[in-house]
Amino acid sequence: MSLIVQKFGGSSVSDAEHIFNVANIITKAYSQGNDVIAVVSAQGDTTDELIEKANEINSHASKREMDVLLSTGEQISIALLSMAIEKLGFPVVSLLGWQAGFNTDTDYGNARIEKVCADRIRKELDKKNIVIVAGFQGINKYGDITTMGRGGSDTSAVATAAVMHADVCKIYTDVEGVYTADPRRVPSAKKLDVISYDEMLELATLGAQVLNNRSVEMAKKYNVEVEVLSSMKNTPGTIVKEAARLEKMLISGVTTDNNVARISVINIPDKPGFAFKLFSKLASKDINVDIILQSIGRNPTKDISFTVTENQLEDAIKILEKYIEPIDNSKILYDKNVAKVSIVGTGMETHVGIASMMFEALFEAQINIHMISTSEIKVSVLISSDDVDTALNAIHKKFFSSIE
Ligand code: ASP
Ligand code: MG
Questions:
Q1: pLDDT of residue 403
Q2: Which CATH number goes with the domain that contains 103?
Q3: Which atom of ligand 1 lies closest to the CA of 151?
Q4: What is the pLDDT of residue 271?
Q5: Nearest listed ligand to the Cα of residue 174
Q6: Is there a domain that residue 22 lies in?
Q7: Does residue 301 sit within a domain?
Q8: How far is the CA of 317 from the centre of ligand 1 (A)?
Q9: Any residues with CB less than 8 A from the CB of 376 and at least 6 apart, and which?
Q10: How far apart are CA 297 and CA 330, in angstroms?
Q11: In this predicted model, what pLDDT tens digit does every residue of 292-327 receive, in sequence order?
């Protein structure tokens, strides 16, 4: 007998038919003699619809009230799913975040789990109940409802698995696992059998939407092995774990991110402290800077270019204008028509020439690189967004043609 945590995303519980499909998966695991905890997201687009509803009333509603509203999405899905399981004749209980013991900090809308007090879950399992838990939500020290940020149910599931020392943590979703690239854009993309936490974290942060990145951080921290798999197809998914690489692949995947903009500040003084001042001004307004490039100074000036997320571009420019414009001859330029393409793989730590393979693929496709950044297991390039699909396919082909 095992303790199994299963998580079902919004598309897996979108209507009655899908809910019964999920109820069957859960009760099958229970019938095999396992203890089962299922963590569930809101149905389909419910969370987006709730946000729209709020905007109709007050687009500046307090974050506290937003969380009271958004948490209702998961309340609906756990109740409906439990009713389906009752109908199939199994003992079941649904629990809201606070009942399941998810204690979070007070950052409404983006709360972090501080502690899971799982006594109630344990009691219900002892009574041989299937336990259905609302994902994405918790309670803070004021006794208020909090939510954990978009996609937060993944984190609820991994936290549950960690606290309960579950034998298995399965994240059921609408894709069959983690792919070498988005299969909708790269038809030859291949599902990975295994991926390491670090690679998954990079991919999640770089825009792959299969798993929420906080959930991967948590899985790594508590060494929870997670399987990402389809709720509609009965096939093995991708295991996320502290992996010794099983397949001989140089990289695990290629991703793209269109939500980037490039800013260049031109003709600024080539003096110590300038970059520090510039970036600390941006940081103080919570603007995340990603790829940075500084030109070699032509006495007495230099240029610095960097990327920000496109939705922070306006704010970044406002801050820079105040600071840069008074400087003689200086200029701020920006470009929204750029995209970031990244390759990720722990193979880079031991193999040389991986970055140059990526650049070769781009050269062969006649795509110009604006900026480059690297880390131990990642290479990112900034290119024109018009080229992004060509780049994605060219790079994928370069690395994975042998398995295509
Ligand atoms: N329902 C929430 C969302 O749509 C949480 C989740 O799905 O994980 O972001
Ligand atoms: Mg989701």
A1: 60
A2: 3.40.1160.10
A3: 8
A4: 84
A5: 2
A6: yes
A7: no
A8: 31
A9: 348, 349
A10: 14
A11: 999 887 778 899 999 999 999 999 999 999 888 777
- The predicted-structure confidence for 50-59, as pLDDT tens digits, reads as follows 999 999 999 9
Residue 149 CA to ligand 1 center (angstroms) comes to: 8
Residue range of the domain that includes 85: 3-174
CA of 42 from ligand 1 middle (Å) equals: 6
- State in Å: Cα 6 to ligand 2 middle: 14
> Which among 95, 57, 99, 54 is positioned nearest to 77, based on CA atoms?
95
Q: Given ligand 1 and candidates 7, 13, 47, which is best to mutate, with the most ligand atoms within 8 Å of its CB?
A: 47
Identify the pLDDT of residue 296.
83
For the chain, residues with pLDDT lower than 70 are: 207, 244-248, 403-404
* CA 357 – CA 345 distance, rounded (Å): 13
**Strands of the sheet with 226-230, listed across from one edge:** 92-95, 130-134, 35-40, 3-8, 168-173, 226-230, 238-241, 194-196
Q: Decide if 111 is inside a domain.
A: yes
Report the nearest-CA residue for atom 8 of ligand 1. 151
Specify the number of domains making up the chain: 1
pLDDT for the residue 273: 87
Does a structural domain hold residue 351?
no
Ligand 1, atom 5: nearest CA belongs to which residue? 151
